[in-house]
Design brief:
This protein is an alpha/beta fold. The protein is built from 14 helices and 9 strands. Strands 1-9-6-4-2-3 form a 6-stranded parallel beta sheet, covered by helices on one side. Strand 2 (about 35-40), helix 2 and strand 3 form a beta-alpha-beta unit. Helix 5 runs antiparallel to helix 6 and helix 6 packs antiparallel against helix 7. The relative contact order is 0.11. Bound molecules: nicotinamide-adenine-dinucleotide and zinc ion (ZN). Nicotinamide-adenine-dinucleotide binds next to helix 4, helix 5 and helix 9.
């Protein structure tokens, strides 16, 4: 038996208002005056002076605003890298991602592709990255995905939706300022928050579970219950707690895996472009047979938040489209093995998965 030796985020700052310290934190990392810091910032903050006025741009530093309407694509990463190489006099000092999972994943991928040759699609998979990434910093503005701690950056490529999983993927620095999440719309808060909840259930109910994952998963799950079912937390407390739940939920899956909901949700995302948070919710709502307790609680949270999930999104798909989704879902073997054990192929059949998709 050989155990995996995982890297972790080496530096993290937590606290309301800690965003004010960003400039001081990155300043020592500037390589030369010709090596800029590139800030990849969610478009939603474009005219938001409260946030952007606190980013000091020196020399050739630049903010690139990016829409999070669509999830990151390999082609988008390659274009950004191209653009950065063309505009910068020297290889940048660092990449700072500010936003949700979409922007965090873009920042990770761009920092990897600035030091590795070729196209990002060639690195989708496990441990294919050869050179250390550029210094990269993650600053979440919405909580739940765990992308701030994870060892992957999920990209949709021409052939597959798959992460760049590598020891060079995790951020060198994360800044957790729960205040940055104050304007997240309620539904989005729920969807991305449920990503965290589902990470906990899939990790805790999985066959890969071990004490490392269990202890983080338990902590995150308790926090999620407080946030989404309790009625004693102020908004600020809920923001603080969901940011930490996201972190712990992410840590829990580092040493285990996600499961059925994520596998099926990847299929939806690949074919229909359904976003991760809402996609997971749509799927999880139909997974009683795999996660009975978890789904029961999920339905209670959904009710509590008055969330109506889209129905019938697979109703008009033809057989070929369904087959594409099924093959994307089934290709994620570690997820199924974690969820259902070594003999998962006997349970997760084409037929079974088609039935599930047809309910959605
Ligand atoms: P997101 O980044 O897609 O953002 C969702 C929406 O919230 C967007 O409209 C965005 O503009 C908005 N938003 C973000 N912060 C806001 C704020 N403070 N105020 C107002 N609006 C705000 O959402 P997400 O759910 O965090 O991320 C989903 C992505 O994360 C997917 O691409 C998924 O593949 C990825 N993901 C990655 C990992 C990982 O480990 N790398 C894990 C899970 C999910
Ligand atoms: Zn997820």
């Amino acid at each position: 038996m050989s155990y995996k030796n995982f890297p972790m985020v080496p530096r993290v700052i937590f606290g309301r208002g800690s965003f004010n310290q960003l400039n001081d934190i990155i300043a020592p990392k500037r390589l030369t005056i010709n090596a800029p810091f590139i800030f990849l910032v969610d478009d939603v903050f474009r005219n938001n002076v409260w946030l952007t006025s606190r980013i000091n741009l020196s020399y050739d530093d630049r903010i690139i605003y990016i829409s999070a309407k669509e999830e990151p694509k390999t082609s988008q990463v390659d274009e950004l890298v191209e653009d950065i190489i063309l505009m910068a006099k020297e290889r940048p000092s660092g990449i700072i991602g500010i936003g949700g999972g979409t922007l965090l994943d873009l920042a990770k991928a761009v920092s990897i592709m600035l030091t590795n040759e070729g196209e990002s699609q060639n690195y989708q998979g496990w441990d294919l990255v050869k050179n250390p990434a550029l210094y990269h910093v993650g600053i979440p503005t919405i909580s739940g995905t765990g992308a701030e701690v994870s060892r992957t950056t999920v990209l949709t490529g021409p052939e597959k939706k798959l992460g760049i999983n590598s020891d060079f993927t995790p951020f060198d620095q994360v800044l957790l300022d729960p205040e940055l999440t104050k304007d997240v719309p309620t539904e989005q808060w729920f969807y991305t928050g449920m990503d965290c909840y589902i990470h906990c259930i899939e990790s805790l109910q999985g066959t890969y579970l071990n004490t490392f994952s269990e202890s983080y998963g338990d902590m995150a799950l308790e926090l999620c219950k407080d946030i989404f079912l309790g009625d004693t937390l102020s908004q600020k407390e809920a923001q603080d707690k969901l940011m930490m739940a996201s972190w712990h939920g992410g840590m829990s899956i580092v040493y285990s895996q996600v499961g059925v909901a994520h596998a099926l949700s990847y299929g939806l995302s690949y074919l229909l472009g359904t976003k991760h948070g809402i996609g997971n919710c749509i799927v999880f709502d139909h997974l009683e047979e795999f996660y009975p307790e978890g789904v029961k609680l999920f339905k209670a949270m959904k009710k509590r938040y008055n969330v109506e999930l889209p129905q019938g999104i697979c109703a008009d798909l033809n057989e070929k489209e369904l087959d594409t989704m099924i093959s994307i879902a089934l290709s994620l073997e570690p997820l199924w093995e974690n969820a259902l054990g070594k003999n998962w192929k006997n349970i997760a059949t084409q037929k079974k998965i088609k039935e599930l998709y047809k309910k959605m």
